[in-house]
Amino acid sequence: MRILVVEDEEPIRNLIAINLEMVGYEVLTSEDGTKAMEVLEKEPVDLILLDVMLPGIDGFTLIEQINVEETPVIFLTAKENVFDRVKGLRLGADDYIVKPFEAVELIARIEATMRRYKKSSDILRFRNIQVFLNQRIVKLEGKQVSLTVKEFDLLLLFLQNKNIALSREQIIEKVWGFDYMGMTRTVDIHVQRIREKLDLKDHIKTVFKIGYRLEE
Fold it and tell me: Which residues does residue 205 pair with via DSSP β-bridges, in sequence order?
């Protein structure tokens, strides 16, 4: 799971990152709202920890530019004013934590937010790729990529079996069905298209005499 920490105070930003990495999260950081937007345009994230008082674009302004239906936001702030908390929640934040706070509390709030979010989430992520399952839409660095029905199904199969070698026969069975009478060469063609369309040449590996494997 990838978390973006947007915090202008370097000691706090680094401490949060260290604590999150210690429990297994992948962490991206930004010291202001402008740079945070640049990160979000290039990198998909699963959750954003967002300070309110930021140089340039503040947290309240930044959250209005974020699709909070896709990416949950937890506000971090030293402000204890109830009106600020209410404003943040009304803008779409999932939670609001007042500094200073203990790392264990922050991690617990992240876990609780992700449990709530995952109940309604239909998004799979791999590096800079987002797959919207219900809509059958794929985005690369935020831009929609056109895939055929079988290309989408093949990508989904790889994402659901990361780091597992899949034979061509297994792929045909899962994507094309038991009654498919074509050649396994079809799999190779579709894999090549996915590699090119989604910049996965270095991640969909050919497994000699077997098939393919999607590697993290």
Answer: 213
Q: How many residues does the chain have?
A: 216
Low-confidence ranges of the chain (pLDDT < 70): 68-69, 79-82, 118-121, 178-184
Asked if residues 23 and 31 have their Cβ atoms less than 8 Å apart, the reply is no
- Give the contacts of 67 (CB within 8 A, at least 6 positions apart): none
**pTM to 2 decimal places:** 0.57
Per-residue model confidence (pLDDT) at position 80 = 67
Contacts with 28 (C-beta within 8 Å, 6 or more apart), sequence order: 2, 3, 4, 5, 39, 43, 45
Looking at residue 86, its pLDDT comes to: 77
Residue pair 51/77 in contact by the 8 Å Cβ criterion: yes
CA distances from 111 to 86, 98, 114, 192, 203 (A): 22, 17, 5, 37, 29
Look at strands 129-132 and 137-140 and give their pairing: antiparallel
CB 50 within 8 A of CB 75: yes
